[in-house]
Specification:
alpha/beta, 94 residues, 4 strands, 4-stranded parallel beta sheet, single chain
């Protein structure tokens, strides 16, 4: 399985952070023979650029990691992911 992690890292409370949760999950998946990639969103992005980044990674699953202040943006990203036929899961530290 190819899992693409989508990490939103911009805004007032989270800028240029390293996401240990994503790193640990990615390592565990790779250890079990899966492939992983990361779409790191560090600034506002257009639908076109976001979809291109996700499609380029050819995911079987999109795994969103975010904190609550990014909810509205991640909700929009989730719709875009669904429109291209990729199932998604969501999580974070809050």
């Amino acid at each position: 399985m190819n899992v693409t992690f989508i990490y939103t890292d911009y805004g007032q409370f989270n800028q240029n952070n390293f996401n240990r949760g994503v790193a640990m999950l990615s390592a565990c998946l790779k250890k079990e023979g899966h492939r992983t990639s990361l779409v790191h969103i560090s600034k506002r992005t257009s639908r076109k650029d976001f979809v291109r980044a996700v499609e380029d990674s050819r995911p079987d699953l999109a795994a969103f990691s975010f904190i609550s202040n990014m909810f509205s943006q991640v909700k929009e990203f989730s719709i875009w992911v669904k429109e291209i036929g990729v199932p998604a899961i969501h999580g974070g530290m809050e």
